[in-house]
Design goal:
By secondary structure, the chain is of the alpha+beta class. The chain contains one helix and four strands. It has one helix spanning 37-54; strands spanning 2-3, 12-25, 59-71, 77-90. A four-stranded mixed sheet has the order 1-3-4-2. The relative contact order is 0.36.
Length: 91
């Protein structure tokens, strides 16, 4: 699966847009261990890829990744990453 923030040089057919959200909680006792940003980013890319594959896509182009820090119900910090792009089938 190709995941690109820009266009690709291959000819393609647009299937649909895809959107996912990945949350990563701070680890350790009461969140003292920090947030694994690499795990959160890898997780959101995996979710985006899986959703596009369900649609029969070969690639996701024009991807955008946005993040914010929030607090869960217990006040523990959570990193939320929103990702979206255009799922395409390479011709």
């Amino acid at each position: 699966m190709i995941i690109s923030t820009t266009n690709i040089n291959d000819k393609y057919e647009v299937i649909d847009t895809v959107f996912v959200l990945q949350s990563e909680s701070a680890g350790g006792f009461l969140g003292s261990g920090g947030i694994d940003t690499d795990a959160a980013f890898d997780g959101v890319k995996s979710l985006l890829s899986a959703k596009a594959q369900e649609l029969g896509a070969d690639a996701i182009i024009g991807c955008d990744f946005e993040q914010r820090i929030a607090n869960d119900a217990l006040g523990k910090q959570v990193l939320e990453i929103f990702a979206f792009g255009t799922a395409v089938k390479i011709i």
